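Annotated sample (chain length 167).
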Amino acid sequence: MKTLIHLAKSILIVASLFLASCSKDSSSSSSSPTPSGGNYFKLDGTLVTPDVVNVTVYDNMVAGGKYIDVYAFKDSKQVLELHMPAAVGNYPAQHDGFTMTNSWLTYQNPAESNFELADFHSNSGSMNVTSFNEADEKLVATFSFVGGNTASATHNITEGHLNISGF
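Output written by the structure step:
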């Protein structure tokens, strides 16, 4: 009986190792093909696929219109914060002078604890909302931007894609 239990445990361990080796790494080098559909972006050429993406739609009294906020998380840490008008359109990505005609896009480095060094706010680029339906809770958009911070460091966010349903 002990031999059977030991054999069963060994089989489970081998099966677990096999399955773990078959799992995909959600961030890969820039030579990897960009996935179709879903939510992803490239950070300085490396593919990042968020685990969770949350959407909030609200009336922005300061800017004078309806806005969309998107928060993306990887390994339980926030990596993106995207703000844009709640309408189909192409919105320049800029941090300063945030209005109903542009977007404010931020990459957040999850390894940095100092928010002034962790936040890379857009100073160029764009957010292109190709489809938005608040009633059906659907958002499809593409984005890219260069984000900078107070340390004069930058990150290039490219090939960003959002395809969100059910927010």
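Annotation: The helical segments are 2-22, 115-118.
Annotation: Confidence is low (pLDDT under 50) at residues 1-31.
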